[in-house]
């Protein structure tokens, strides 16, 4: 009787410990080691004898030629008391060497800042921690938002907003366009360079036709309700170099986004319908990272494991479940949606890269809440702190 009571007591204690440990699961869970990337964070998931754990940080990762890189945005702050002038730069940082390379830089704010300095020689640029006027006469800002990462290529949107009053001429100008950059060189990619001449000619022609039909139909309307829409659509003009890359059930798509320039109100590039392109060699190399299935239920398979991401009803979060080789399901946790990629940390990851990855996760965990908020909305005067690119996202 005493031994049976002791056994029950031990079992009860073990169950209580498991319940208190939250996401910890029994040691029988299959070994797994991978990183889940979303639009605003990276989550490192490990499982083994110690159970299953997930650690999330506000960092956007890419893997280029086997090496890990962090993609981030920094502010280029050139503000004065009565003129908020804040540009943006997109960077790629090698996690092993720590070296950063500039991928994209806004040119509007530096040009305007030079013009302002010449026109106001007695004005002094604001110190780092100084505050701008509550209602500055001039506001010229730029944002770079990362929309996706596929291997060596990053898709982004570039937007500018200019409000100028009280100068020689008032100005209210807003622009938006999209593009794809090669992380290895920082050069702009074209659909032809990514997917071949034949595919580029086909999807570009189809997208251009789609835009012309939609624009002409709207401009042909004569009722009052369409007048504002006609003014808006006239601010946009198709450009074959304004596009992004997406993955649809594991297949590559090109999404053209018509760039615009308007004199009133901020705007975003107008995305057209996704268009299928052939899965070329560099895309095939990403097959383990890219999800299969519809957005509501994405899945990744690797070495007998399957990770599933189920979209919640509100669409803001996804629930992760790991299925092992014995078809047992283990709850991993909940992450922000959408889920972009899964990077499996197998034997192809070198020791130096794994060590650098661990250091980067430790560093990213120290990003302050103020730094994250600084990207959206932009403060009246930025501190110029380096920020994860994901926090400038759509």
Overall SS class: alpha+beta
Bulk shape? globular
Question: How is the main sheet built?
Answer: 9 strands, mixed
What's the pLDDT, averaged over the residues?
84
Q: What portion of the residues fall into strands of 2 or more residues?
A: 35-45%
Low-confidence stretches: 1-27, 370-394
The total count of strands amounts to 21
Distance between the termini: 64 Å
List the defining traits of the structure above.
394 residues, 9-stranded mixed sheet, 4-stranded antiparallel sheet, 8 helices, 21 strands, 38% strand, globular, disordered N terminus
Report on this structure.
The structure is a single chain. With 394 residues, the protein is an alpha+beta fold. The chain has eight helices and 21 strands. The strands form four sheets. Strands 4, 5, 6, 7, 8, 9, 10, 13 and 21 form a nine-stranded mixed sheet that branches. The protein has a four-stranded antiparallel sheet with strand order 3-2-1-20, with no helix packed on it. β8 and β9 form a beta hairpin. The radius of gyration is 25 Å and the shape is globular.
């Amino acid at each position: 009787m005493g031994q049976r009571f002791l056994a029950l007591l031990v079992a009860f204690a073990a169950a209580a410990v498991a319940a208190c440990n939250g996401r910890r699961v029994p040691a029988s869970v299959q070994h797994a080691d991978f990183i889940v990337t979303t639009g605003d964070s990276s989550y490192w998931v490990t499982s083994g004898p110690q159970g299953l754990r997930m650690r999330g940080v506000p960092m956007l990762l890419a893997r280029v030629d086997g090496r890990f890189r962090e993609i981030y945005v920094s502010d280029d702050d050139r503000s004065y008391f009565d003129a908020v002038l804040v540009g943006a730069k997109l960077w790629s940082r090698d996690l092993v060497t720590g070296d950063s390379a500039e991928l994209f830089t806004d040119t509007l704010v530096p040009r305007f800042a030079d013009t302002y300095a010449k026109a106001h020689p007695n004005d002094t640029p604001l110190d780092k921690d100084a505050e701008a006027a509550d209602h500055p006469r001039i506001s010229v800002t730029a944002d770079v938002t990362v929309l996706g990462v596929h291997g060596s290529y990053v898709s982004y949107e570039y937007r500018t907003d200019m409000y100028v009053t009280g100068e020689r001429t008032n100005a209210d100008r807003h622009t938006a366009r999209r593009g794809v950059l090669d992380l290895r060189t920082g050069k702009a990619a074209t659909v032809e360079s990514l997917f071949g001449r034949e595919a580029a000619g086909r999807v570009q022609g189809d997208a251009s036709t789609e835009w012309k039909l939609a624009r002409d139909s709207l401009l042909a309307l004569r009722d009052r309700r369409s007048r504002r829409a006609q003014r808006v659509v006239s601010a946009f003009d198709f450009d074959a170099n304004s596009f992004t890359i997406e993955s649809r059930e594991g297949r590559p798509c090109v999404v053209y986004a018509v760039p615009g320039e308007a004199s009133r109100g901020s705007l975003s590039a107008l995305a057209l319908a996704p268009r299928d392109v052939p899965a070329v060699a560099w895309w095939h190399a990403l097959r383990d990272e890219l999800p299969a299935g519809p957005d509501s239920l994405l899945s990744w398979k690797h070495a007998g494991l399957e990770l599933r991401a189920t979209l919640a009803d509100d669409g803001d979060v996804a629930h992760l479940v790991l299925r092992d080789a014995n078809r047992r399901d283990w709850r991993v946790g909940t992450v922000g949606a959408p889920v972009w990629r899964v990077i499996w940390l197998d034997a192809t990851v070198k020791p130096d890269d794994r060590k650098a990855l661990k250091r980067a996760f430790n560093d990213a965990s120290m990003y302050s809440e103020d730094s994250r908020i600084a990207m959206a909305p932009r403060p009246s005067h930025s501190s110029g702190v380096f920020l994860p690119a994901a926090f400038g996202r759509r």
